[in-house]
Amino acid sequence: WGLFLRNHDELTLEMVTHIERDYMLDEYARDPQARINLGIRRRLAPLLNNNRHRIELMYAILLSLKGSPFIYYGDEIGMGDNLDLGDRDGVRTPMQWNADKNAGFTSPACDKLYLPVIKDPLYVPELVNVEDQKQSETSLLNWMKTMIRVRKTSRAFGRGQQRFLASANHRTLAIVREFEDEKILVVANLSATAQIASLDLAEWAGFIPIEMLGGAIFPRISDKPYLFTLSPQCFFWLKLRWLGGTPWKAPT
User: Fold this and answer.
1) What percentage of the chain's residues is helix, strand, coil (to nearest 5)?
2) Strand 172-179 to 161-164 pairing
3) Beta bridge partners of 197
4) Sign of torsion, CA 77 82 85 88?
5) What is the structure's pLDDT at 38?
């Protein structure tokens, strides 16, 4: 079961209702050039208005879900697209490896390239490339590497059962992943404002949530509603440990 946030050529909307399609096109493809057939031709960063918080939130949800996540080339560094190119070529521009000529994709002259390098000032190779992001601890590329590394520490993400928990706040999302003795709680704020999520976690009373990216220890779960205060477009990956069990440490 493959999961992705956008497709390599067309993010098709043919299987949704007309009302849903009109809403999604108006929200994510207001520029008519971004539309193709019944779908959208855009890379992820332009789809999300190049908003780093939104991009991270969507990837955190993608990596939380059951199935095999697909990350299409360029999205791991926040590459843009070129809507001036015909058909689906707008999302097939050369990978931006560095800030050199042709973005380090190849050495021949620019006019020999099958497709041109992006010229959009927000996404030019001089600003968005692999080489620079490798050297920055806070880059999207290194954030992605951390998320993938942490995901691989738990078999529950790849193989576990998946349950969505009811939340009184529709702007929040809560998922439990379980595999054998592993239990992971994912909580996300889908809105652009701070939110509170009240969850019924009585089934896991006695367990302690431990944040998987930094190792922060949350209060023990009881049979009462558990409250999460969530900043805008943020998320938690929490490993649930039984009180008195072997402490779980975040990977270094």
Assistant:
1) 25, 20, 50
2) antiparallel
3) 228
4) positive
5) 86
* Cα distance between residue 67 and residue 60, in whole Å: 14
Give the chain's length: 252
Residue 31 backbone phi and psi in degrees, to 5: -75, 120
For the packed helices 140-151 and 52-64, what is the interaxial angle rounded to 10 degrees?
A: 20
Separation in Å, CA 14 to CA 38, 87, 211: 6, 17, 38
Instruction: Give CA torsion, residues 34, 35, 40, 45, to 10 deg.
Output: 10
Residue-wise pLDDT for 62-108, tens only, equals 999 999 999 999 999 999 999 999 888 999 999 999 999 899 988 87
Rounded Cα–Cα distance for residues 133 and 65 (Å) = 27
Residue 252 is encoded by which pair of tokens? 């270094």
CA 247 to chain centre: 28
- Strand, coil or helix: what is 75? helix
Report CA-CA distances (Å) from 222 to 83, 151, 195, 209.
52, 27, 21, 11
Give CA–CA dist 18/132, Å, rounded: 42
Most confident of 114-118, 181-185, 248-252: 181-185
